[in-house]
Amino acid sequence: MTDSAPLETPPRSRGRPRIAGDELTTRQAPVLEAAGRLLATRASGDISVELLLQETGTSRPSFYRWFPGGMEQVFEQVIAQANSDLVSRLLTEVARVESTEARIRTGVRAYFDWGLAQGPVVAGIYREGFTEGSIAQRYRRQTIDSAIALIGSQAEGIGLGGIKPSHIETLVSWVETAGAVIFRHYPVSRDDVDDQCEMTTRMFLTMLRQLMADHGITLD
Length: 220
Prior knowledge:
Shape: elongated
CATH architecture of the domain at 75-214: Orthogonal Bundle
Radius of gyration: 23 Å
Number of strands: 0
Structural class: mainly alpha
Strand content: under 5%
CATH superfamily of the domain at 75-214: Tetracycline Repressor, domain 2
CATH class of the domain at 75-214: Mainly Alpha
């Protein structure tokens, strides 16, 4: 009887093992938070890997393990998270009320609450969101399109299915412009945000009432 051949041990891969899922999210979080804070006072192009390493105490090898796409990936994730939060707030809050006017007031309020909560990230988005080809512009456009789709579906529900898409986009752009006016100056106070929110809501409702009157509909 002969001895069986010993099992071969697979070679070890070089470097540290990759991480993913919740562990990766946890490791990335402090870096993303630091990048978001820095956007309040610096353009994204002025925020370097070295600066983030200083802010967070992260090593360069760890940074590139968590963000193999470098700074482009960092800002992609920061802005994507902010915009995802906005869309979620809008959909959640609007679904809680029934009347058209209440939905408008709730939607505008959700937008301004988002801007206040996101703070420096929103300041950065509005500083760079009109720069052609920027990450901020791309996600800003996606958010505007989501808001237009939401308002469009609400308009159909009250008999305004024939409203021009350009009119809907104009209404959304008014709200966003009012937000940019206040949020590009960071930090901002709750009182200033509330004042801007109320003015924007009145403006939105005035225009919507006119559009509805043109279709023989009264705002409920």
